[in-house]
Amino acid sequence: MSTTKQPGARPARTVTRAVRTPGGLSLRLDVRSGLVVLLLLAALCAMSVILIGRGDFPMAPGDVIATLLGNGTAAQEFIVQDLRLPRILVGLLVGAALGVGGAVFQSISRNPLGSPDVIGFGQGATVGALTAIVVFQGGSAAVAGGAVAGGLLTGAGIYLLAWKRGVHGYRLVLIGIGVAAMLTAVNHYLITKASLVDATRAVLWMTGSLDGRDWAQVWPLLAVCAVLIPLALGHGRPLR
Known about the structure:
Distance between the termini: 20 Å
Strand order of the largest sheet: 1-2
């Protein structure tokens, strides 16, 4: 497909600056992207402080910041450090992981529809988790393992079905959409065959909730994100 340059149109320019690290490594910094990231981080911190202060025991933003710095009362320390801060961190870490996962899929498929939920990976993980809940009545570890296994098997299946002298983005997306529809039907079937308790647990798992999240969930998420997110960012150019 060819494009025609409009008369008088100016090409979009990206302002970049060269940055040299103490070790002699030269990097190019996109000024606009860096500014957007800083603004988003500032908004993220502000919203986190506001959300920590909301609840049955409301706290002013100043009190929240003082408590985070170790200057709060015993009650404030318990509410912030033990109850609300872990929930905020779990939400932020899960959101970051989902965002990076979506960006990786879009880069590989070169298609804005290339996200885990559209091409079936999310549905495959759900099948694995619901199988562990409904069929085997497994615990949290079994459900997590089932979700990982379901996602990996679904990914392998979609890759093999999309293979035809290589894997093209549009074929991966089209086959993934079809597989996602079939797996969605499987999920609905599993829920209809579950007991009331298992069905409630399955729906809660599918919907997701920050209720009851604590530091036991924060540390594994933080470890995974600390390894995989820099790895994905470091391979951003090859992925494209």
